[in-house]
Write a structure and sequence with these properties.
Number of helices: 9
Structural class: alpha+beta
Number of strands: 14
Strand content: 25-35%
Oligomer: single chain
Mean pLDDT: 76
Order of helices and strands: HHHEEHEEEEHHHEEEHHEEEEE
Shape: globular
Largest sheet: 14 strands, antiparallel
Radius of gyration: 21 Å
Distance between the termini: 52 Å
Low-confidence stretches: 1-44, 52-70, 209-232
Length: about 400
Amino acid sequence: MEAAVAALTPTEGKSDGKTIPVGSSSDSSAEIVSPNAVSDAAMSATAADADAAAGSSSGVPSAFNVDNDVVDWGYDVYDTHRLDQLMELKQVANCDVFEGNGLPTGWGRLYGGQILGQAIVAAAETVPEELLIHSMHGYFLLAGESRTVILYEVDRIHSGRSFARRTVRAMQANKVIFTLTASFAKREEGAEYQIPAVDLIEYLKARQREPQNARERGLALESNKQPRPFRSVLPDFRPGRGLLGLESPEVLLQRGVELQRDSITGTVISLDIAQGDRWKLVWRKHEEELPDDAPWAAHAAVIAYITDFGTVGQVKQPLLNRGQEFDPFGSASLDHAMHFHRQFRCDRWLLFHQWTDVSHGSRGLASMQIFTPEGQIVCSLTQEALIRLARL
């Protein structure tokens, strides 16, 4: 990734030099449209959050009672919730150390997707620009404060001609809150394979063969205890519609399907297509276009941010449908693994197919595949979540 950060020295303090840009956006305030967005993001806490909340009477603290210094970007970070600015980092003393701001959240802790994205940006800054991130695995260790600067330390554990590996430690108050291992590879020509579209359509159609009672007794993802009946919306596959015969985002908008925005930045927009007992199909993208010369790592970082939405809720969905009740402070993201198969743009519509297959021992696994409108699989990921039952 092209070096575009300003060095900070111990004697000079904070620099007003260049930063690592992710994209461009308007200065309009973020509007909360999606009723699920707050709970989806709030569930992306850490295991430490869940453990701490279990032993406290007040639960999650307020995000607006912390007074700490922030990196000086020339604007008020708390009034600017643009996703591109959220990912900006500054280099410290010409070392493989970078610092970035947290973004205030309604539950007081850092949103996991932000740490994922910033860690990718930090790792990419230490490899040649011809090497592109193709995989990463991160672990959420401790709860992070959303109004405190985050320090990212990068270790160059391997640098070869075709591959490079980096580890990143995200720190606050001299404690490691998150670790990431990322691998970068040089572009190469080689054999290609992807599940044929006709097989993939049949696979998605099989989602329709769900138990009727699960379909009729579903609960909203945002609810931990109280049932809210919903009807599983099954995709209408028709030839000639584009990707897998599904309706395009443009057609859905023309039909009046509600456009939803994330509750943290307001820059991630989505359109729900279909939902079942343990799966969901949704179009998502970053609304503002990134510059044409934005590095690939910028798009990967934004998608990493987006993929942390709703994964814990996806794990809980089939259990909620069967009447399970969960501790409202006992859910957390434990890890997050991604494989980037092809380059893509985060500011173009992408199809997110997410599901869960197994939960056991207060842990469950969410999976996701991301498609371009042309039907190419560009990214695959898994996330394990902590899901503790409510104490009776």
